[in-house]
Structures are given as C-alpha cells and as structure tokens.
Design brief:
By secondary structure, the chain is mainly α. It has one domain (2-115): Cytochrome Bc1 Complex, Chain D, domain 2, CATH 1.10.760.10. The chain has 5 helices and no strands. The chain has helices at residues 2-21, 40-49, 52-56, 76-84, 100-111. Helix 2 crosses helix 5. The N and C termini lie far apart (34 Å). The protein binds heme C. Heme C binds next to helix 3 and helix 4. Heme C binds at residues 12, 50-52, 54-56, 65-67, 69, 73-74, 79, 82-83, 86-91, 93, 98, 106.
C-alpha cells in the first residue's frame, strides 16, 4: 500500500513537471463539442500509460484519489478543458503531453466501460 502511493505520487509529480514545461494549452473553442471517433483499445492503453488509472482506477470508476469518470464522462469539450486545466488536485495534461485525439481515445474507452451492477442484482439488498 505504502509502495503504491509512493509510486503514484512520483508519477503525478513527473506529470506535473512535464506539463509545466509544455507551452500553452489549445484554446477550448477548437475542441469539438462532441467527441471525435476514438479507439477504445488505444484509450485503454493511454489511460494506464499516462497514469489516469492511478487516481481514477483501471476502469475509470473512481478511487481513493480521483472522481468517477466511466461510463458517463462529462461532455467531451468539458472533459478536454478539465484535463488541460484541472481546478483541484488533478495534475494538468497539456496538448503536448496528450493530444485531443488521444483524449478522444480515452473518452471512447471510458464510455465503453460496464456500468456498476444494478442494486437489484445484490441478494442482500433485495
Ligand atoms: C494524481 C491524481 C490524478 C491523475 C493522475 C488524474 N486525475 Fe483526473 N481527477 C483527479 C481528481 C482528484 C479529480 C477531482 C477534481 C480535482 O481535484 O481535480 C479529477 C477529475 C477529473 C475529471 C473531471 C471529472 C468531473 O466529472 O468533473 C476528468 C474528466 C478527469 N479527472 C480525467 C482524467 C484523465 C483523462 C486523466 C489521465 C490523462 C486523469 N484524470 C488523471 C485526480 C487525477
């Protein structure tokens, strides 16, 4: 457990350093309102490779550190705007770190995730 959070912090720190060195982000107006076609498999890889899973979990269902993203992420333009300039504890990912197309892939991956089981499927709660 110790080990995991240490690695997470190191990756988050590395991402922040990288992001800080990058030039200004793309103005949100250039981002389409609806998500361009995304590749679910690429998105899945990026979600892991770029560390989103560290805070949002492998399935994007949220975790100790990050909000739930899947299977209904916020609208694509807001999604990109947020990732480029987060307001809270999340590190920023500039266009240099992740392109809009890569974010569209991640978006497609998040939308493809299964929903949590229905409450009615849990015998104890029936
Ligand atoms: C170091 C932890 C961390 C990492 C890494 C991280 N996030 Fe986050 N994210 C957060 C937290 C915490 C929030 C909740 C608001 C805040 O504090 O910024 C959040 C919020 C969000 C939101 C807004 C959700 C909403 O409903 O408003 C989006 C979208 C998002 N993250 C996407 C991503 C993507 C995509 C990646 C990878 C490219 C990523 N995050 C990586 C911690 C992280």
């Amino acid at each position: 457990m110790m080990m995991r959070s240490t690695i997470g912090a190191a990756i988050a720190a590395a991402v922040m350093v990288h992001a800080a060195a990058a030039p200004q982000t793309t103005p949100p107006a250039q981002t389409p309102a609806t998500a361009p076609a995304g590749d679910v498999e690429k998105g899945k890889t990026l979600f892991t490779k770029n560390g989103c899973y560290q805070c949002h979990n492998y399935e994007g269902h949220g975790g100790a550190a990050g909000a739930r993203l899947a299977p209904n992420p916020i609208p694509f333009r807001a999604f990109v705007t947020y990732v480029r300039a987060p307001k809270g504890d999340m590190p920023p990912y500039t266009a240099k770190v992740m392109s809009d197309q890569e974010l569209a892939d991640v978006y497609a991956f998040l939308r493809s995730r299964p929903r949590p089981p229905a409450v009615s499927s849990l015998p104890l709660l029936r």
